[in-house]
């Protein structure tokens, strides 16, 4: 019988926000894959662990080797269906049984922290990609949510929105990082002020027009 590949969303990172069935699968795992931070937070003694460093071909080879004798649990930040490793792993292991347990995305968590709804928001990612220009245009009353990275942090995105897509500098915005952790940081300001904000490399930017 083929072993199972389990993809578990660990939400914003704090174990308090992981669904109980996800915690159960993690605790039962013999083989655990995740970022160094995730492994530090979730791994237990006796588990064989593999830290994800970005070299996906090496990761896939290692997982394939482990699946010959054990189930493999892969921890992904946020939700499994929102910019996670799930599409890559499905493509690499199409013949293995797959269990996917969702988590809370950092985007929805950010909106919750701000006390805002996201049902009509346009959610995008600047993390390793650039959204199409037509998705970034200014429209009064429009709400945007962005995942960010080191190159396109909230300051860079704010400048792009103002300089290239007509967003007023007075637009309300919020930059959110380390969500759910004790050192969580949320900066609420205008888009003009966010354009001068340092840091917040891997974070969430919410813009409310």
Which SSEs are present, and which pair or pack?
Layout: E1 5-9, H1 20-28, E2 31-34, H2 36-42, E3 48-51, H3 56-66, E4 72-76, H4 86-92, E5 98-101, H5 106-114, E6 122-125, E7 143-147, H6 154-165, E8 172-177, E9 185-190, H7 191-194, E10 204-208
Parallel strand pairs: 1-4, 1-5, 2-3, 2-4, 6-7
Antiparallel strand pairs: 7-10, 8-9, 8-10
Tally of DSSP helical segments = 7
In N-to-C order, the SSE pattern is: EHEHEHEHEHEEHEEHE
CATH superfamily assignment of the largest domain?
A: Tetrapyrrole methylase, C-terminal domain
Determine the oligomeric state from the structure.
single chain
Domain tally: 2
How many beta-strand runs? 10
Low-confidence stretches: none
Overall spatial form: elongated
The amount of beta strand, in percent, is: 15-25%
Q: State the end-to-end CA separation.
A: 54 Å
CATH class of the largest domain: Alpha Beta
Looking across the biggest beta sheet, what order are the strands in? 3-2-4-1-5
Share of helix, binned: 25-40%
Biggest beta sheet summary = 5 strands, parallel
From the helix content, strand content and strand pairing, which structural class follows? alpha/beta
CATH A-level architecture of the largest domain: 2-Layer Sandwich
């Amino acid at each position: 019988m083929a072993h199972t590949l389990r993809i578990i969303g660990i939400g914003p990172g704090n174990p308090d926000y992981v669904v109980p069935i996800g915690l159960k699968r993690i605790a039962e795992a013999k083989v655990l894959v995740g970022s160094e931070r995730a492994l530090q937070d979730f791994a237990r003694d006796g588990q064989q662990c593999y830290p994800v460093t970005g070299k996906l071909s090496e990761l896939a080879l290692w997982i394939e080797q482990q699946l010959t004798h054990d189930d493999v649990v892969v921890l992904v930040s946020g939700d499994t269906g929102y910019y996670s490793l799930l599409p890559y792993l499905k493509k690499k292991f199409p013949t293995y049984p797959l269990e996917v347990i969702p988590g809370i995305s950092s985007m929805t968590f950010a909106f919750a922290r701000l006390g805002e709804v996201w049902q009509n928001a346009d959610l995008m990612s600047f993390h390793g990609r650039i959204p199409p220009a037509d998705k970034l245009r200014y429209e009064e009353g429009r709400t945007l949510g962005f995942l960010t990275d080191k190159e396109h942090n909230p300051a860079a995105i704010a400048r792009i929105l103002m300089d290239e897509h007509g967003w007023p500098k007075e637009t309300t915005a919020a930059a959110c990082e380390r969500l759910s952790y004790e050192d969580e940081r949320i900066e609420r300001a205008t888009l003009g002020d966010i354009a001068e904000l340092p840091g917040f490399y891997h974070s969430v930017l919410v813009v409310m027009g």
